[in-house]
Amino acid sequence: MLISNGHLDYNYGYKFIVLDPQTYTPRDVKNVNRSGKPTDRFTNQESFEGDLVYGVSWDRETGTHHTTSKVVNGEVIQVNREEYLDWRGLAPEITQWLQPERAGQCYLPAGLGWDGVMSKADYSKLDRVKRFFYNVSDDIKSILIEAARLAPGHRIPTKWTEAKPLPQTLELSPTATPDQWEAIMIWDTTGFKGMVKSAHEPCKINFDQTPKKVVKVHYDKGYVGWELYRA
Q: Of 29, 38, 208, 230, which has the fewest Cβ atoms less than 10 A away?
C-alpha cells in the first residue's frame, strides 16, 4: 500500500512518514508526484502490514498535533502512542521533519527512504529504458536516459507489442534550437541501424514495409517522449 507523505497548504498542512516497526527506519519512497502546482507535489512511501506511520498536522485554529498509527489490514489505524517510541525519540532527522512547514511541495528529504532524486519507480523506469536502448550508441543512449528520468511512463513506451503500424512516411519538424529536436531511430531484423535527426528544414523519411521497428523521439530542453512504430 502506498502512503502519501503529506500536503503543505497555506493555512494548514499534514505530514506522514512510514517506518519499519522493528528498526524505526523509513520505508522506501516508491514514487513521486512531480506535476501540478507545488502544493500538489509529494513523495509516496511503500508500506507493509504492521508498519508504523508517524504524522503531524496543523492549522490556524487548533494548532499542531502529532499522531502514531499502524498499518492494519490495508488501513492506517491510530494506536496508543504510549506503546511505541515517542516521535521526539525518533532519529533527529525524522523528528526535525515532523514539524509544521510553510506551503510547498511535500518531499521526504534525502536520506529518509531515498536519495532525494530517484524513487524506486524512477530506478525501475530507467532500467527499463536502458534495456530498451541496449544496442544504441552510448552518446545517444545517455541523452535519452537522462531525459527519461523526468518523463511520465506513458510518454516513453518500451513494449513493441504496443507499437502503432508503421506508416509509409514519417516527418521530422525543423530544429528550433540545439536542445529542441526530433529524431527517428530505426531497427531491422539485424539490430539497430541508425538515427536520423531533424535539421533546420522539415524532413520526410520514407519506409518500405520490410520488417523493422521505428522510434520517433521528441526532445525538448531536457524533456523527452517517443512513439513506437512497427512494420
A: 208
Do 137 and 49 reside in the same domain of the chain? no
Residues 92 and 181 in one domain: no
For 158-212, the pLDDT digits (tens) are 999 999 999 999 999 998 788 899 999 999 988 899 999 998 888 999 998 788 9
Alpha carbon 48 to its chain centroid, in Å, reads 21
pTM: 0.83
Amino acid identity, residue 42? F
C-alpha cell at 229: 512504430
